[in-house]
Amino acid sequence: MMSCRQYIAPMVFCAQVASSFFDTALQMVVKERCANATDPDSEQKAITNFNMIFNMIFKFMPIVPAILLAKVGDKGYRKVPIFVPLIGYLVSRTLLLLDIVLEWPLQVLYAVPVIHGLCGGFASYWAGVMALVSVCATEDKRSLRIMRTELVYGIAGFIGSLASGHLFNLYTVDLKHGVILSGLSVLFYFFCLIYAAFILRVDNLVLEDRQERREIIGIINQEARDMMNIVLLFASGILYDIAVAGGIEMLAAYVLKDPLNWGATEVGYGNAAGSLLFITSFVGVKFFTRCSVRDESMIMIGMVSFAAGIYFMAFVTTTPLYFLARALTLFALIPMPTIRSLLSKQVKGTSYGITFVLLQLSFKLASLVTTPIYTKIYQAYLDTFPGFVFILSSIFTVLSIIPISIVGCRSARHNGYETIQGN
Fold this sequence. Notes:
This protein has helices at 5-33, 40-60, 63-74, 80-102, 111-118, 121-135, 139-168, 179-198, 204-218, 221-224, 226-254, 264-290, 295-313, 319-328, 335-344, 352-380, 388-422. The longest helix has 35 residues, at 388-422. It is mainly α and 423 residues long.
């Protein structure tokens, strides 16, 4: 039987390197266009207002396209939810390159999330990747396989982010800052598109085989407690995503102001520190799995790790302290892939795509409300305590632990019954 992982990993790696290049380029272009030496607060407000509108469009636009693509994927066309978003990535990233070269107004970049979203966006792309990995893995190895894919994603982000700051500063008489970095991002996405179209192979028999085995083994459990577990897992995931997404979005602006006042190189290193968490989280999953730690427990460990780190971030005033706060979040990326793994064990194989997309879209819908709230709170406390939003993220993280702890209690209660059934 074919293993999908060995074919999908190069594409995931290349796409994330390209994404890291784009993220740094966008962050620095926005900073340069909003520069106002006489009034730093106005610069911060301009940056956060742009980021707020950009992120809200980014989260809203993929909703319908991603659902449609997920349904196509669940019918057996697993490459479609991956291939179509890559088209959106390529076109939207090309727009940033043109904006830098032709010096278009900053507002033109609002078209980037529109194009990206109409093609399904990250919600479709990553849900498609997760669905493909899930149908190629047995239930007992699924958490590790999903985390391994996240590891590839993280290593790529680490390498891309480290290089991105230096590449942004490369320029010639004919090329402006950011042209080389954005051009490489476009080139890498083009490679991913070609790879997905002609090299990525998907064996439909894998889906059919896993589907049949899921129906035979899980037929009794399917009606007993799946729906309650699904609701609790969604609730925990949404609360945790609000905490992480809200905190990280504000962090992008926070590091550009005094006292940190980062440039392109430091921004790249900061993004690399975030990507390094994929590696430490993967090592954590390997270690906890060998110690027979349950999935629910691993999720809570990751959540506590992020809560501690983001709380400490509220009081960061120097670059070394920033990286120390990041170090406290070393297991922060364990929860999301493990939640996806638990969800995949609650539904049939032919529903993986739509389940993962609905999870991803629920994050985006929640963020449509919380993003402007986070932004306005950050702006309100800009002169007094800008790190207050990170304390807010820590509170949301603690709340997200409650639903997953209930799932753990329910699973433990039924564990003995399921073992007899499996035998």
